[in-house]
Amino acid sequence: MGYIGSDYPQSWPIKRGNVLMAFDNPKHYALDTTQGALEWSSLVPSSPSSPNGTVHLGPYKQPFTVSMMHQLKCLDVIRHETIRGGRDEDGMALARHCLNYLRQMVTCRADLELESFQFASHKNPIDMHGVYECKDWSRVYEEVKKNQEEHEEWVSHR
Q: For 144, what's the count of Cα atoms within 13 Å in the CB-facing half-sphere?
């Protein structure tokens, strides 16, 4: 693989197993607080030469975005534009891109996990206290951060 043009793998070939994750309504990641904004922005690792979760692969250090990082960044963009009330056309154009991208990714992944329906009179009828088997996202974070550190080192010696 030369990682030039269309000569690159469809997926980043890192090993990751499965992990169990308990879903709930967390106290973190608030929509409209300073702390929530910090938590949302910290979900996507960045470095000076690798913003927004960018990784650099192959002998020529070609930049790529890992889909998971793109999705997390898009959630933060939508959160931010929701707070701003759609006053900025450029921001809204990005939010529209993100909403459509997330729709496509959800459809593409076609998650078949069953969610327990309590009953319609509940404020939150879907039971979000289940435990789900997920891909190990911590391995993705480890590899993105490692790649970004290696790229910073590579850039510093150029």
A: 22
Residue 145 and residue 51: Cα distance in Å, rounded? 11
Of the candidates 66, 65, 69, 63, which has an alpha carbon nearest to the alpha carbon of residue 3?
63
Rg (CA), the chain: 18
Task: Please enumerate in sequence order all residues whose Cβ is within 8 A of that of 143, keeping only pairs 6 or more positions apart, or say none.
Answer: 12, 14, 55
Question: What are the pLDDT digits (tens) for 98-122?
Answer: 999 999 999 999 998 877 776 665 6
The token duo for 28 is 């973190």
Write b or e for each residue in 79-109: b if 16 or more Cβ atoms lie within 10 A of its Cβ, otherwise e. Answer: bbbeeeeeeeeeeeebbeebeebbeeeeeee
38, 133 Cβ separation under 8 angstroms: no
Compute φ and ψ for 18, nearest 5 degrees: -105, 150
DSSP string, 47-101: BTTBGGGEEEETTTTEEEE-HHHHHHHHHHHHHHHHHHTS--HHHHHHHHHHHHH
Q: What is the pLDDT of residues 72-85, one digit of tens each?
A: 999 999 999 999 98
pLDDT at 62 over 80: yes
Instruction: Provide the token pair at 72.
Output: 């997390």
Round to whole Å and give the CA distance between 25 and 19. Answer: 19
